[in-house]
Amino acid sequence: MEKGLISVDRWTEHSQAYFLTHLHSDHTQGLSSSWAKGPIFCSRLTAKLFPFKFPGFNLSLLRLLAVGTWHSISLVSPSSASSSTLQVMPIDAHHCPGAVMFLFRGEFGCLLYTGDFRWETTSKRAEIGRTMLLNALKDDVVDILYLDNTYCNPSYAFPSRAIIAQQVIDIIVSHPEHDIIIGIDSLGKEDLLLHISHELKIKIWVWPERLQTMHLLGFHDIFTTKTSLTRVRAVPRYSFSVETLEGLNTMHPTIGIMPSGLPWVVRPLENGDKLFGSLLTSRYNRSKWSGNGGNHTEKPNGNLGSVEKFHKYIYSVPYSDHSCFAEIEDFVKLVQPTNMKGIVSSSSCYVDPLYYFGRLCGAYQSAQSLPHNKRKERVERVLAVNNKTTFRCGASAGVERKRAMTVKVKSSGIHASRMSALRRKKRGAKIEENDRPN
Ligand SMILES: [Zn+2]
């Protein structure tokens, strides 16, 4: 595709049209209330939430795209001034409210940009998405797949959100006298909160801005800002810390639940080079959870089998809105693209999905076919890079957020950090000439 024609989740350069997959901050860096570079194409729900995130935004620049429908967009070549037509279909990414993938078709070929997505094998919504995608593709081949590679590593093997949601219920029920706090972002994890509310017949406390978002999403009776009405509170992730939990426990017994696919690891304060346990050592028993794309029927050890008690007051549960490794693999097998690129990158760490899934594309040499030593070398290199990586949730994460993610447990002399092998520092793509499939 010609340079400067379209950008997806990328706002720093000039394009003819801009596409927004969803409203998480790591996808909106460079976008602001004063945006005037051009029209932004997004889902209807994202458009509805848009003014709340960007107050004062010129809403006439938003172009709503219905999910599951092909839309034609006329573009003019910046270099030749000739016009061309782009076709695009948004498909439910089942990530957070409003999140979509974009399937593009045009002179440049066929491109699929997933944004962040989670398609569990057991999810009806994902099944609808799969059918929609295959029907839209017909006999077309995806020339380039831009893939959510957040958990593109075999160590990221975790169960479906439905299983983990039930485990969260079990945790809460097993603490009848405790207050419960759950760390969430400004968008996402609504289904988990709804499940808790429905199963336990209680309201969920949220902070005032989050209540507004819940109302925009149509949830009017489930959430409250009155602490007296419930013992379950969903709090901003940046305020969720060991210190917060310790402080709360001086007043009332309280436990914290952190839903995320990212593992927590512990490392010594004095020797930052060595971790207690590898970053890439999954907390889950892979033989139980991996290899079937999240289609898990086996119950983990007891009711709380895969739940990790990170701290005496904190449970870490692998409730993730991103696909686990097996689900990513299933997705690549489904799409069978000619080529692919990961959308998650940072200056220090990037796991190329071709490393694991190149054999499914056919365009690149399979990782399996690499000589053993070479493969080992590459694995070790990935491990080395990842172990140096410190966690930050998005480049826009401010000091406050960084502090929240780094939990210091002074009394025990250890430094515990929440680590990600893949810092979500930068997302988005500008589809350019050199992306043109061969
Ligand atoms: Zn996201």
TrEMBL record:
<dbReference type="GO" id="GO:0035312">
    <property type="term" value="F:5'-3' DNA exonuclease activity"/>
</dbReference>
<dbReference type="InterPro" id="IPR011084">
    <property type="entry name" value="DRMBL"/>
</dbReference>
<keyword id="KW-0234">DNA repair</keyword>
<dbReference type="GO" id="GO:0006310">
    <property type="term" value="P:DNA recombination"/>
</dbReference>
<keyword id="KW-0540">Nuclease</keyword>
<keyword id="KW-0233">DNA recombination</keyword>
<dbReference type="GO" id="GO:0006303">
    <property type="term" value="P:double-strand break repair via nonhomologous end joining"/>
</dbReference>
<comment type="similarity">
    <text>Belongs to the DNA repair metallo-beta-lactamase (DRMBL) family.</text>
</comment>
<feature type="domain" description="DNA repair metallo-beta-lactamase">
    <location>
        <begin position="222"/>
        <end position="341"/>
    </location>
</feature>
<protein>
    <recommendedName>
        <fullName>Protein artemis</fullName>
    </recommendedName>
</protein>
<dbReference type="GO" id="GO:0004519">
    <property type="term" value="F:endonuclease activity"/>
</dbReference>
<dbReference type="InterPro" id="IPR036866">
    <property type="entry name" value="RibonucZ/Hydroxyglut_hydro"/>
</dbReference>
<keyword id="KW-0269">Exonuclease</keyword>
<dbReference type="GO" id="GO:0003684">
    <property type="term" value="F:damaged DNA binding"/>
</dbReference>
<feature type="compositionally biased region" description="Basic and acidic residues">
    <location>
        <begin position="429"/>
        <end position="438"/>
    </location>
</feature>
<keyword id="KW-0378">Hydrolase</keyword>
<dbReference type="GO" id="GO:0005634">
    <property type="term" value="C:nucleus"/>
</dbReference>
<keyword id="KW-0539">Nucleus</keyword>
<feature type="region of interest" description="Disordered">
    <location>
        <begin position="418"/>
        <end position="438"/>
    </location>
</feature>
<dbReference type="GO" id="GO:0036297">
    <property type="term" value="P:interstrand cross-link repair"/>
</dbReference>
<keyword id="KW-0255">Endonuclease</keyword>
<keyword id="KW-0227">DNA damage</keyword>
<dbReference type="Pfam" id="PF07522">
    <property type="entry name" value="DRMBL"/>
</dbReference>
